[in-house]
From TrEMBL, chain A:
<feature type="modified residue" description="4-aspartylphosphate">
    <location>
        <position position="61"/>
    </location>
</feature>
<dbReference type="InterPro" id="IPR011006">
    <property type="entry name" value="CheY-like_superfamily"/>
</dbReference>
<protein>
    <submittedName>
        <fullName>Response regulator receiver protein</fullName>
    </submittedName>
</protein>
<keyword id="KW-0597">Phosphoprotein</keyword>
<dbReference type="InterPro" id="IPR001789">
    <property type="entry name" value="Sig_transdc_resp-reg_receiver"/>
</dbReference>
<dbReference type="Pfam" id="PF00072">
    <property type="entry name" value="Response_reg"/>
</dbReference>
<feature type="domain" description="Response regulatory">
    <location>
        <begin position="12"/>
        <end position="128"/>
    </location>
</feature>
<dbReference type="InterPro" id="IPR050595">
    <property type="entry name" value="Bact_response_regulator"/>
</dbReference>
Length: 130, 894
């Protein structure tokens, strides 16, 4: 397995996704690419998890039990510790309105489900700080 | 005879009459007294035609003018024998138009012209004044005859004070009886009966005196005839013009005199009485006149020269020392006088109050009055009018000096009231008669009578100077009151009658021909002239009360509307224990009806209308119907407007609701699409991601197999979702094909439990059932119902969070419906969520995804709706509890 550059080695991705199969797929793709991936399924405690795990990139599902992705994002942007955290948002609703709302809420990238694995990798690579 | 005894007798007699009238009215209120309405009482009440003038004056008349007095009876006899033509029509019109007086009749006929009413009222009052004076005079004279005997006890006061006492007493009696209450109908049963009694008294008295004269003084009829032959009466020669004129005059008077009209038309209940009266009343008059000539002849023989022949009826028995007979005669004369005065006063008072006082009062007080006020006012007006009429009579008596023969005074009145005849006959026989014609005819006739007869009757220099009488006003010879247009040598009475009636009739016809009747006149004219053709209100229709109820119903329908009125009347009739829609118009019912009507047209109007219909009043029924029609039209119109307004409001509300619903639907549709998208994309995401991973290859086989299994599971999940969606869509559209048949509930639950066991098979579930209660056969779609049960049991298996989960299934049958409860022992569903669970995609927890997309309960709800049942959440059962209710037998739609 080819090992990418050192700066990439330590990058830590936090995935907040309630659908277990999807979480597993993303985790597999990113880990195969050499990223450190941790997952979380709940919405209500998501912010706390972000604060404690201090990821380099957050992949956030829009529809989460307990708290929506938008609410989590607003909370993160309001917190100086996490205001610059790159966020990739996923949505299964796939509506144009959601994309616009996500942009407004301050996401760095937005992806509709289903996505291609290559797309996912490209987005993550673009967002992981070098 | 002592004067005080005389006064005492009079008082006793009056008290007797009072008692008769009182008792009759008391009983008439309580129960029906058929004989009070009999033709006999009717005929006897007509005897007020025979006043003191007839009682005393006829003898005097015969003594002075021979058989001419017979004309006074001849005229009415002709009228009554020919009752079929005039009287019957008058009575019918009076009944149908609810006529209250002769003034009312004329006013009503000519388009309810109050001017005519006033004119006729004035004419009647003026004409009645001499007549009332006549009665006062006769009573006073009779008193003086008695008092001229040896004086004991009281001294006879002078004649003027006697007259004033008599007038006062009569006024009191009339007020007491004529205006005790404002009867809805202007009938006075008590007074009529008292008058019938008086009719008997005067007949008995006159016949007794006559018999005494024939058999007591003379030696029987033969002797009397011989005496007549010897007397001056035998030399009397018939003056054809006077004979015909007087016959005509008395014929006119019998229908035109206000008091006669009162008993003839107003007080009568039944025109069939006329048939009896047509022979009985002439017979009565025949008996009254039978002994007139014998008394006159014997009186002339017996009594000294210069004795007043008007008093022979009294003086002959007195002269022969027959005190008792004289007393009877006195009472007969007293009866004649009082009866006439009472009825005349009542009739005139009705006219004055209805045509003069009320219109004046109403025009002076335009604000709508409370009905009670008006009634009190009417009663007061009548009382004052009665006093006024008697006061006028007394005034005339004083003014004319109390002199003059009785008959002459009576004839003056006759000519006066005869002026009404053209307008009356024209009104009931000629549709072309107009108000203008009636006004001018009456006015000129009235004027002519006053000028040529009434004013000159006071004597020269009383009102008209002797010079005016002799030379005419301002010396214009052809305007001499008693020789108009230079026609001299005529009897003053005939002269006056001739000219006033010629003038009256000619102008009436002429003006009627050149003018056109107004709409109301036309209507009334037709109603009067064609009274017998206007249908079913014939004599039999007047079977007391029933027709009134029907009229009330007709009016109520026009005001309340058909259905409510019919319902009201029917319930009233049922309350009275009657079938149909016509209750007896008892006071209670009329009162309730009035209140009901008042709700529609206002209290005052309703009261007036009912007073008119329940009784008789100045305005005709047709008029009321017109008013009612108008009211109904206006109300219908406003009701229509209101209905339109309501409809608009309703439509607006519906539109608003529809709009809200559409907006809501649009939002729901967006949410639903969004949900569907989510539910479809989620499994797709996994499938795509893992299939791409698999496509890249170089995976360990066990990992590849794992990924393939995920793809497979998600594909199944997708399929199930699509199945559910299609199912729901079919159920919601109502296009679901139900497979109905008999199914055993127990077997269905068994099946459902087996199917649901696949859900979380790792969990042990305790099921509580009652096999006996479950053993019910249902006619329904068994597969669909089982689908609901499976869903509920699966949900319990999925979501029941108890450590040792239990599910209780209880079945109950109640009426034609079955309830099946599914109750688990978990923590249940929170109150706010209970409302959401049956909505699509309303998944409450996300802990597991083993099941569908959150469409389960929504589908259950739709299935139950299709099976004619319901599914509801049962709160307060200690866990999640669902109740399924459905009919034992599902009726196939259509």
């Amino acid at each position: 397995m080819q090992v990418p550059g050192g700066w990439f080695m330590t990058a830590h991705v936090l995935l907040i996704e309630d659908e277990p199969n999807i979480a597993e797929a993303i985790r597999f793709i990113l880990m195969r690419d050499g990223l450190k991936v941790s997952t979380h399924a709940g919405g209500a405690d998501a912010i706390e998890v972000v604060r404690t795990s201090q990821p380099d990139l957050l992949i956030l599902d829009l529809m989460l039990p307990g708290m929506s992705g938008f609410d989590i994002l607003s909370a993160l942007r309001a917190d100086p510790q996490t205001e610059d955290l790159p966020v990739l948002m996923l949505s299964a609703k796939g509506q144009v309105r959601d994309r616009a709302a996500a942009k407004k809420a301050g996401v760095d990238a937005f992806m509709s489900k289903p996505f291609s694995n290559a797309e996912m990798l490209a987005s993550v690579r673009a967002l992981v700080p070098r | 005879m002592p004067f005080d005894l005389l006064v005492l007798s009079c008082l006793c007699y009056v008290i007797l009459l009072f008692l008769v009238a009182f008792l009759v009215e008391r009983r008439a209120v309580g129960e029906a007294l058929p004989w009070l309405r009999s033709p006999l009482v009717y005929t006897l009440s007509l005897s007020i035609y025979c006043t003191a003038w007839t009682f005393y004056g006829a003898v005097g008349y015969a003594a002075r003018s021979g058989l001419e007095y017979l004309t006074i009876y001849l005229g009415p006899t002709l009228v009554f024998v020919g009752w079929w033509w005039v009287l019957r029509k008058l009575v019918r019109i009076g009944r149908q138009q609810r006529v209250t007086s002769i003034a009312d009749l004329i006013s009503s006929r000519y388009g309810k012209s109050n001017l005519l009413g006033v004119l006729v009222t004035l004419l009647c009052v003026v004409a009645a004044t001499p007549y009332i004076a006549l009665q006062l005079q006769s009573v006073t004279l009779s008193f003086s005859v008695f008092a001229s005997g040896p004086h004991e006890g009281w001294q006879m006061p002078d004649r003027d004070s006697t007259a004033i006492w008599v007038a006062g007493g009569l006024a009191l009696f009339t007020i007491l009886f004529g205006t005790r209450k404002l009867d809805a109908n202007e009938q006075h049963t008590g007074i009529v009966t008292a008058i019938a009694v008086e009719g008997i008294v005067k007949l008995v008295a006159l016949v007794a005196v006559g018999s005494y004269v024939v058999w007591g003084v003379a030696d029987g009829p033969a002797d009397v005839i011989a005496r007549i032959d010897r007397s001056a009466i035998a030399d009397w020669e018939l003056a054809p013009s006077r004979w015909a004129g007087l016959t005509f005059l008395s014929a006119a008077a019998v229908v035109c005199l206000p008091r006669m009209f009162q008993v003839l038309v107003v007080e009568t209940g039944d025109e069939r009485h006329l048939a009896t009266a047509s022979w009985a009343f002439p017979l009565y008059m025949f008996l009254m006149s039978l002994f007139v000539v014998p008394i006159a002849v014997v009186g002339l023989e017996l009594l000294p020269e210069g004795a007043n022949p008007d008093l022979f009826v009294l003086t002959v028995p007195l002269d022969r020392g027959q005190g008792g007979l004289a007393m009877l005669a006195f009472l007969g004369g007293f009866s004649s006088a009082t009866a006439m005065v009472i009825v005349a006063a009542v009739a005139l008072a009705t006219m004055v109050s209805n045509h003069i006082v009320m219109p004046l009062w109403l025009s002076l007080r335009p604000t709508p009055a409370v009905s009670g006020d008006v009634r009190r006012l009417v009663l007061l007006a009548r009382r004052i009018s009665i006093a006024g009429v008697l006061g006028l009579g007394y005034g005339y008596y004083r003014f004319s000096g109390g002199s003059g023969a009785l008959a002459a005074i009576g004839l003056i009145s006759f000519v006066g009231v005869a002026q009404i005849l053209p307008a009356m006959l024209g009104g009931i026989f000629w549709r072309g008669a107009t108000r203008t014609g009636a006004l001018w005819g009456l006015g000129l006739g009235f004027g002519g009578w006053v000028y040529t007869l009434f004013l000159p009757s006071f004597g020269p220099d009383a009102i008209f100077s002797a010079r005016l009488l002799a030379e005419g006003p301002f010396g214009i010879g052809w305007l001499r009151p008693q020789a108009l247009f230079g026609v001299e040598g005529m009897d003053p009475l005939i002269h006056s009658m001739f000219w006033s009636l010629i003038l009256n009739g000619t102008v009436f016809c002429g003006a009627s021909l050149v003018t056109f009747p107004g709409p109301l006149e036309r209507l009334q004219g037709a109603a009067f002239v064609n009274v017998f053709e206007t249908g079913n209100r014939g004599p039999q229709g007047w079977a007391q009360g029933k027709a009134e109820s029907e009229e009330l119903l007709v009016m109520a329908q026009r005001i309340l509307g058909e259905e409510p009125a019919l319902a009201l009347f029917q319930s009233e009739a049922r309350a009275q224990g009657k079938e149909g829609y016509l209750p007896d118009p008892v006071p209670g019912f009329v009162e309730r009806l009035e209140r009901r009507l008042a709700g529609s047209v206002g209290a005052a109007t309703a009261h007036a209308m009912l007073a008119q219909l329940a009784g008789r009043a100045a305005v005709s029924v047709e008029d009321l119907m017109a008013v009612a029609n108008e009211t109904a039209q206006i109300m219908e119109y406003s009701a229509r407007l209101e209905a339109q307004q309501e409809e608009l409001t309703r439509t607006a509300r519906q539109l608003r609701e529809a709009n809200e619903k559409l907006t809501q639907l649009s939002v729901q549709k967006d949410a639903f699409l969004s949900q569907i998208s989510h539910e479809l994309r989620t499994p797709m995401t996994s499938i795509r991601a893992f299939s791409e991973i698999l496509m890249e290859g170089d995976l360990p086989p066990e990992m590849a197999a794992r990924h393939a299994r995920i793809i497979h599971d998600e594909a199944i999940r997708l399929t199930r979702l699509l199945d559910d969606l299609l199912d729901l869509s079919v159920l919601e559209n109502g296009s679901v094909q139900l497979n109905l048949g008999l199914a055993n509930l127990q077997q269905m639950i068994d099946r459902a439990l087996r199917s649901a066991a696949h859900t979380r098979p790792e969990r042990g579930f305790t099921i509580h059932r009652d096999p006996t209660a479950e053993n019910i056969f249902l006619f329904t779609d068994g597969d669909r119902l089982a689908q609901v049960f499976i869903n509920l049991i699966s949900n319990a298996r999925k979501y029941c969070d108890a450590d040792y989960p239990e599910l209780r299934i209880s079945v109950r049958q109640k009426g034609g419906r079955v309830t099946v409860d599914f109750i688990d022992n978990g923590s249940g569903i929170s109150k706010e969520s209970q409302e959401l669970i049956f909505e699509k995609f309303a998944r409450l927890s996300d802990q597991t995804r083993a099941g569908g997309a959150g469409l389960g309960l929504a589908i259950c709800r739709e299935v139950m709706a299709n099976l004619g049942g319901t599914i509801t959440y049962l709160p307060g059962q200690g866990g999640a509890a669902f109740r399924v209710t459905l009919p034992l037998r599902l009726q196939r739609a259509a």
